[in-house]
Amino acid sequence: MDTILSPRTTTGSTAPLRTGAEYLRAIADDGRRVYVDGELVRDVTRHPAFREGARSIARLYDMAADPANRERLTYASPADGAPVLRAYQIPRTHADIRAKRLAAEAWAEATFGLMGRTPDHVAGFFAGYAAKPSVFAAGGQQFADNVVRFYEKLRDNHLYASYAIVPPQIDRSKPAHQQSDPSLYAGVVREKDGGIVVRGAQQLATGGVFSDYLYLSCIHPLQPGDENYAIGVAIPMNAPGLKLLSRRGFAAKAENAFDYPLTSRFDETDSLVVLDDVFVPWEDVFIYRNTQICFDQWWKTPSHVYGNLQAQARYATKLRFLLGLAKRMNEATGHDKNPPVMVQMGELASLATIVDSMVQAQEVMAKVEDDGVLWPSRNTLYSVMALQSEINPRMIDIVREITGAGMITLPSSERDFENPEIAADLDRFLGTPKQAARDKVALMKLAWDFIGTEFGNRHQQYEKFYGGASFLVKMNVFRNYDFDRATGLVDAALSLPPLAAE
Ligand SMILES: Cc1cc2nc3c(=O)[nH]c(=O)nc-3n(C[C@H](O)[C@H](O)[C@H](O)COP(=O)(O)OP(=O)(O)OC[C@H]3O[C@@H](n4cnc5c(N)ncnc54)[C@H](O)[C@@H]3O)c2cc1C
Predict the structure, then answer these.
(1) Residues in domain HpaB/PvcC/4-BUDH C-terminal (predicted)?
(2) What average pLDDT does range 282-294 have in this prediction?
(3) Section 432-445 average pLDDT
(4) According to the 3-state scheme, what is the secondary structure of 339-391?
(5) If you measure from the C-alpha of residue 473 to the centroid of ligand 1, how many angstroms do you get, rounded to a whole number?
(6) 3-state class (DSSP) for residue 82
(7) What gap in Å lies between CA 117 and CA 210, rounded to an integer?
(8) For 191, left (φ over 0), alpha (ψ -120 to 50), or beta?
(9) What is the pLDDT of residue 477?
């Protein structure tokens, strides 16, 4: 199908909560152009690289549509009181922020923290934009109206947006407009009746192949001359001219769910976005040729903190899963009560607890900034994000250390258990007094899929970079830390009264 089929939407009233089946129908064979292994994928819900990832997202929609989860995963739309995803809630009280975190945790638990860009991530960014439309109005009131209308459309139709907000790594030594070809980085190339035309590429749309909409913008600092790249626009994933060039689809290479229990189910995929003269109607343009607003959207609205509150709740959940894996592996190897291993487990638990506590501190230290909207604590958020690129590899390394060869001394695949010539050997030498060989192998394969497979290693890169390079996050902490209070202490120490004897 080559026509644009926008996801089924309602205007003016809230659609019934979307089920998983409705979500899958909406993205199936809708004309989106996804490329993997040299092939154009017509239907991501059927292709082996994407099918199970799409079903994992569908399960999240089913959870939210289940009346048993109404309070945890939804809230009443301000439009008409009907339930909508809590990720779209604009928090006004501490209880609201807590409720948003609990919703994010519920979905993160369902994916073991292994899918970062689920529909609740970019939802947080749009909630942040709608909380502070005045930032967009600086370019003209119509842009503020557009972003609020689009937010309401996402919210009231339970839609899934992904984003690509980083220019491709072509030549980082030059600004956007001085690249060898001015249409390498995604930007506007001309206006056309009723809208604008966008051309170029942007990285890296995690979950893009599964989403309804792409938000295309730029978080990298732009310079004078870069105005054409200073845009913020929403594009349906099946818009003509939009192509998603997926990285290797790990799930397609995962032979079965026993050997690759995580790869086979939770590969959210990452895609380079290519725009071949994509037309965007004015109503889906929120920022137009304005470098200041392009910058301010991240830092002068609560978008970045709402989106990353979800990201951190997801990460804390993933670390809890890692702790569980390590504990079960120690039980399997007989090291669980070995004091040096207990010390290492204590270090792991400390690091996981720091992350978890920092997520909760974002709520506790949240403040109403203006417009009656609550912002999670930026300093707390950015501090834990800044240390993530050190904490994460440290934790993975400890788990590698305590496991020895446990994740490697494994049958080559599930099929080895079916060969009578070796099945008895596997049962005898891989089992433990408490655990049948097959159960122990399943556990170790689960851990290896988390840590050592291509899927596991991509996750380590993801945790390093999903919130931007760590030097940038540290700059955020620098900008937000209360240095006045710190230097005040130094000044007080320097002006202490003389000692009695002096
Ligand atoms: C798995 C994964 C998923 C992602 N998902 C998304 C997504 O969904 N949407 C999206 O928009 N983006 C996504 N990203 C992209 C991510 O936002 C970028 O990778 C990130 O912003 C870093 O940019 P870069 O990769 O271009 O690195 P660069 O900006 O090129 O930097 C690379 C390295 O160079 C060094 N460096 C560069 N400049 C400096 C400097 N001034 N000072 C000190 N050191 C410097 C640092 O070591 C830095 O880490 C994802 C990335 C990964 C790896």
Answers:
(1) 296-494
(2) 98
(3) 95
(4) HHHHHHHHHHHHHHHHHHHHHHHHHHCCEEEECCEEECCHHHHHHHHHHHHHH
(5) 11
(6) coil
(7) 10
(8) beta
(9) 93
Q: What is the pLDDT of residue 148?
A: 98
Q: Are 262 and 449 in contact (CB under 8 A)?
A: yes
Closest ligand 1 atom to the C-alpha of 167? 26
Dist. CA 214–CA 235, nearest whole Å: 5
- Residues 215, 117: Cα–Cα separation, whole Å: 13
Pocket of ligand 1 (CB under 6 A): 117, 163-166, 169, 172, 203-206, 270, 458, 461-462, 465-466, 468-469, 471
DSSP state of 92: -
Q: Which two tokens stand for residue 211?
A: 């989403």
Check residue 5 and give its pLDDT. 40
pLDDT tens string 365-384: 999 987 899 999 999 999 99
Q: Does domain 303-488 have CATH number 1.20.140.10?
A: yes
Q: What is the pLDDT, as a whole number, of residue 124?
A: 98
Contacts (Cβ under 8 Å, ≥6 apart) of 445:
258, 259, 260, 261, 407, 410
Output the residue whose Cα is nearest ligand 1's atom 14: 204
Q: Which amino acid residue places its CA nearest to atom 43 of ligand 1?
A: 471
Instruction: Give the CA angle between residues 252, 408, 348 to the nearest 5°.
Output: 95
With a pLDDT cut of 70, the percent of the chain lying above it is 98
Q: Is 438 exposed, middle or buried (0-12, 13-18, 19+ CB in 10 A)?
A: middle
Segment (H or E) for 128: helix 119-131
Q: Ligand 1 atom closest to Cα of 206?
A: 8
Mean pLDDT, rounded, for 328-349: 96
What integer is the mean pLDDT of 414-438? 95
Going by alpha carbons, the residue nearest to atom 46 of ligand 1 is 469
Q: Cβ distance 108 to 313 under 8 Å? A: yes
